[in-house]
Specification:
With 153 residues, the protein is of the alpha+beta class. It contains six helices and four strands, in the order ααβααβαββα.
Length: 153
C-alpha cells in the first residue's frame, strides 16, 4: 500500500474523531504541508474538494479576497458546501516549499489550487481572472466554484 494511502487511513479517522479545524488565516508559523494533508483528508471524508488559497497578510489582494468572501455569503456557502478551504502562507518568512513545491509556480497572489479528495491537482488559477476594478467579480467566482465543484453524488 503506498505510504500516502496509509497516511490517509490514519489521518481520516483521527480528524473524524477530533473534528477538522479549517485554516482561515495566512500564518507563516504553520506547517502548510500538514494543513494541506489534513484538508485533503477532510475532503475525502466529506466528499468535497480542496480549495487551496495561497498568499499572505502582506498581500493587499489577499486581504481584498477575504473581505470579498465575507461580503458575499452566497459564495461562502457555495465554498463550504463543495470545498475544504485551506490558506497557506507564502512569503520570505515561510515559502512552504513542501506544501507548494509539487504545484505549478504561482505568478501572483493570491493564487488558488483546486485539489480532488486524493490531493491531486485539478486546477491552478491566478485570481487576476476574477478581478473587476479594485475588487472581484461575484459572477466569475461563482462560475469558477461551480465548474470545479465535485460531481453530484
Amino acid at each position: 500500500m503506498p505510504s500516502k494511502w496509509l497516511a490517509a487511513l490514519v489521518v481520516v479517522p483521527l480528524l473524524a474523531a477530533t473534528g477538522y479545524q479549517p485554516v482561515k488565516e495566512y500564518d507563516p508559523g504553520r506547517d502548510g504541508a500538514k494543513d494541506v494533508r489534513n484538508a485533503v483528508a477532510e475532503a475525502a471524508r466529506t466528499h468535497r474538494r480542496v480549495l487551496l488559497d495561497v498568499g499572505g497578510n502582506w498581500c493587499s489582494w489577499c486581504r481584498l479576497l477575504d473581505k470579498f468572501f465575507a461580503d458575499h455569503p452566497d459564495l461562502t456557502t457555495l465554498v463550504d458546501k463543495n470545498y475544504v478551504m485551506v490558506k497557506v502562507h507564502y512569503g520570505p518568512d515561510n515559502f512552504n516549499e513542501e506544501a507548494l513545491g509539487k504545484f505549478p509556480h504561482a505568478e501572483g497572489y493570491p493564487h488558488i489550487y483546486v485539489l480532488d479528495a486524493r490531493g491531486e491537482l485539478l486546477r491552478s488559477q491566478g485570481t487576476d481572472a476574477f478581478e473587476e476594478g479594485h475588487g472581484y467579480s461575484a459572477e466569475r467566482w461563482k462560475a469558477f466554484l461551480e465548474k470545479w465543484a465535485p460531481p453530484i453524488q
